[in-house]
Amino acid sequence: MLDQAQIDRLRLIDTGGFPVLSVYVNLQPGPVSLRNLPARIKDLLAQAEATSESLPRSQRLSIREDVHALSRDIGRFGTDLGHGVAVFRSHGAGVDEQFTLPGPVRDRAIVDDAPYFRPLEAMIEHYRRYCVAVVGRRLGSIFRFSMDQLETWEEMRDEEIRKANYGGFSGYEEQRVRARADEMAARHYRHVADRITELKRSDGGFDLLIVGGSDSHVAGLLAALPPDVADLLAGTFTIDPRTMTPSTVLEHARRVAAEWEVQEETRLVTELFDAAASGSTAVLGLEQACAAVNRRAVEVLFVQAEHTTAGSICVDCERVTCEMGSACSVCGGSLRSLPDVVDRLSELVRGAGGRVQHILNDGPLAEVEAGALLRYAAPMVDPT
Ligand SMILES: [Zn+2]
Fold first, then answer.
1. How far apart are the CA of 243 and the centre of ligand 1, in A?
2. Which of 67, 75, 74, 81 minimizes the C-alpha distance to 109?
3. How far is the CA of 296 from the centre of ligand 1 (A)?
4. Is there a domain that residue 382 lies in?
5. How many A from CA of 334 to the centre of ligand 1?
6. Who contacts 267 (Cβ-Cβ below 8 Å, separation ≥6)?
7. Model pLDDT for residues 174-184, shown as the tens digit of each residue
8. How far is the CA of 312 from the centre of ligand 1 (A)?
9. pLDDT tens, 201-214?
10. For the segment 188-202, what is each residue's pLDDT rounded down to a tens digit?
11. What CATH code is carried by the domain that includes residue 285?
C-alpha cells in the first residue's frame, strides 16, 4: 500500500546531480482515457524530452535514456495497475521505481533534480483510514481499509451462548435464559466496542468507522461505542458474518466509503460556494484563486482533481497567474511558463501553512476549476 515511508525512502536517494523523470498516468476506467493510453504516454514522454533540452549534455542524455526505456516498455503502464501509476526514473542515478495508485491522478511528466512527489502526497492526504467492523452473535472481525485495500486487523470470538432446550423449562426459567442471552450479547458488543476504541486511541488509529452485520448486531455495537467513536461512523452495511469473505467485505467497504466521500465532497463544495456567495471569505475561479494565493490569504485551496491548466509565474514579483504572455501585467517583469498552475498554487498554499482539498467527483467546482477559503487575517503590521 502506498505510504509516506515509501516516499521518504525514495527521497533519500542521492541522484548525483542527474535529473529524475517523474511520470504520472491516469488509469481510471473511462472509454476515452484508456483507449488512447499509449498515445497519452508518448505525448507525456515527448514533453519530458522537450523540457530537458536546456539541460547540460550528460543530464539530457540521462533523460533521453529514460524516455526511450519507457517508450519501449509502455506495457508497464498496464490497466491492471489500479487507478493510476507513478514512475520515477533516472538512468544516470540508477533509479527506477513504480507506484500503483489507489485513485485517479492527472497525467503529467516532470523533469527535475528530485522525484516529483506532490501528487502522491496529495493522495496520501486525501485517503482516509477506515476501521471496518463486522459483528456477529459472538464474532467480531475488525479490518483496516485504506487506499482501496482491506486487511485483517483483529479477529474476536466470545464464548458460545449455550443452546438452551426450552422444552423442559418453566416460563420463568425460559425468561431467565433469554435474559442471560441478552446479557451475553451486550457483553459481546461491549467487548468489540472496547477493542475498536482501543484501536482508535492506538498509534495506528483510524479516521472513520464502517460497521457491518445484521441490523440488530449493528445497532447493538453502535449503542456500545463511546460517543466520540460513534461520531466517526461513515456508514453501515448488512452482511452475514458466517458467509462473508474478505472480497465481499471489501466491496461493501468500498461502496460505503465512496458514498461517504461523495457526500463529504458535496458538503465541502457547498460550503465553499455559500461562503463565496455570502461575502469575502471565499473566492471561486482559477485566476481569483491565483490572486488569493499571491496574497498568501488562502486557508484551503479547492482544486478539481483531473484539471490541468497552464499558466505563468512572474520572475520578478513571483506572481502566479493564468496569463500566458511574456510580460507580467502587474509589474512588467518577464513571465516564465508553468505546465500546471494548480501544482504551483498547491505548493505555495502548503508552504504558507494552508491545506489543499482535492475534489475527485464532478460537481460545481469542475466548472470553475478552483476555489479558495480565505483566512480571517488580521491586517499585517509592517515590521520595519
Ligand atoms: Zn510581476
1. 65
2. 67
3. 16
4. no
5. 7
6. none
7. 788 888 888 88
8. 10
9. 986 799 999 999 99
10. 999 999 999 999 998
11. 3.30.1330.30
Give residue 377's pLDDT: 46
How is residue 334 annotated by DSSP? Answer: B
379 part of a folded domain: no
Q: What spacing in Å lies between the alpha carbon of 320 and ligand 1's midpoint?
A: 9
Q: Is residue 272 part of a domain?
A: no
Mean pLDDT confidence for 95-124: 84
Ligand 1 centroid to 368 CA: how many Å? 24
Query: 322: CA distance to ligand 1 center in Å?
Result: 13
| Residue numbers of the domain that contains 184 | 130-260
| 317 CA from centroid of ligand 1 (Å) | 4
The CA 321 to ligand 1 mean position distance, Å, reads 10
User: Ligand 1 centre from 349 Cα, in Å?
Assistant: 19
Q: Please check the confidence at residue 165 and state whether its pLDDT lies above 50.
A: yes
pLDDT tens-place string over residues 30-43: 655 667 888 889 99
∠ CA 206-207-212, nearest 5°, is 80
Q: Is 377 helix (H, G, I), strand (E, B) or coil?
A: coil
Nine cell digits for residue 78:
498496464
Task: Give 293 Cα–ligand 1 centroid separation in angstroms.
Answer: 14
Instruction: Give the environment of ion ligand 1: residues with CB less than 5 A.
Output: 314, 316-317, 319, 328, 330-331, 333
Question: Which among 231, 260, 289 is the end of a domain?
Answer: 260
| 201 and 318 housed in the same domain | no
Say yes or no: 250 and 332 in one domain: no
Residue ranges in 28-145 assigned as alpha helix (H): 31-35, 37-51, 57-72, 118-126
- Of 165, 158, 149, nearest to 195 by C-alpha is 158
Total domains in the fold of the chain: 3
